[in-house]
Amino acid sequence: MADLSLEIQLSTLPNDPGVYRFYDSDKNLIYVGKAKNLKKRVSSYFTKKHEYGKTRVLIKKIKSLDHIVVPTESDALLLENNMIKKHQPRYNVLLRDDKSYPWICLKKERFPRIFPTRNLIKDGSEYFGPYTSMRTVRTLLDLIRSVYPLRTCTYDLSEEKIAAGKYKRCLEFHLGNCKAPCEGLQTEEEYDRQIADIRQIIKGNFNSSLRYFKKEMKRLAGEMRFEEAQLIKNKIEVLESYQVKSTVVNPKISNVDVFSIVSDEAFAYINFLQLAHGSIIRSHTLEIKKKLEEPDEDLLALAILEIRDRFDSQSKTVYTSFPLKLPEGIKVVVPKLGDKKKIV
């Protein structure tokens, strides 16, 4: 049982949701936890018999505690997650990741370049990602470059410099990889239309590109320009082939994060999939070394917040295999049937 000072602290705990913090004899923060009912949860540490050795060690080290009351259980989860990140208590599971993930950058400039990067520069450029591997980024960029002619040079393609004839077409033009906007051979309007379609492809939506190319192919065929029409048909086939390979579920399932967990006594493994238009656009597995007797529900809830933050997920819906309380604005769905059930 807790000593007298702890007994007094326990007796004053409210029956409200919140976050509790345990300190050792040197006033070091050693554990942060959340609770739907603070009094019930914190008291359980001192009244239950704990079989797990590390939990017993933690309890012996607790010399004082404090708590913060919050309006909802979801608020408690957010606060707990922030405190663990900030203070990194000894007995908490730490979800730190020092790895630098790759992004796709769409440069803010006339005739934008598109390229992979691990550095985010706040210059108004657009960044897509992060992705879990550079291989995924390169595969996607290879697809885009096989369909769209894009410039790779770093020239300042201002109207004045192009009009003055400052630049000359390079080898990329002769290879068919660029239409030489540097010499005014491609209009800004045409280039920007390509960029608009590329944005959608990166997001997993091929419909805009396919519609445009099919319309263009019919136009060229109608004008008896069959060789050009065949080149467009080849691009359609490249896009459709990639789309078929990447589509794993019903295309109506879009903008969804899928999480599952598998665990044993020592480790937990959280699997993450992000779906857009039926395709997996991002996947990641997080390994967690357990510190105490953390239930799967608590580990998964913390991992969801960390992974969504790490990969900058804006999805409003999360699929999981069991109900969870997540922050406001995130809808948790536990699929029961069909394609949704298969992917969890």
Description of the structure:
This protein is an alpha+beta fold and 344 residues long. It folds into 4 domains: 4-87, GIY-YIG endonuclease, CATH 3.40.1440; 98-203, no CATH class; 206-246; 256-343, Ubiquitin-like (UB roll) (Roll), CATH 3.10.20. It is 40% helix and 19% strand. The chain has helices at residues 4-11, 38-47, 53-61, 73-87, 134-147, 159-163, 171-174, 188-202, 207-222, 226-246, 296-310, 338-343; strands at residues 18-23, 29-35, 64-69, 103-106, 114-117, 126-128, 256-263, 267-276, 279-289, 317-319, 331-333. It has a 5-stranded mixed sheet, covered by helices on one side. It has a 3-stranded antiparallel sheet with strand order 2-1-3. Strand 1 and strand 2 (29-35) form a beta hairpin. Helix 9 runs antiparallel to helix 10 (226-246). The longest helix has 21 residues, at 226-246. The protein is elongated.
Write the element-wise H/E pattern from the N-terminal end onward: HEEHHEHEEEHHHHHHEEEHEEH
Tally of distinct domains: 4
Rounded Rg: 27 Å
**How widely separated are the two ends?**
42 Å
- Count of individual beta strands: 11
Major beta sheet, specifics?
Answer: 5 strands, mixed
Continuous helix count: 12
Judged by helices, strands and strand pairing, the structural class is alpha+beta
User: What's the average pLDDT?
Assistant: 87
Low-confidence stretches: none
As laid out across the biggest beta sheet, the strand order is: 9-8-7-10-11
Q: How much of the polypeptide forms β-strand, as a percent range? A: 15-25%
Shape: elongated
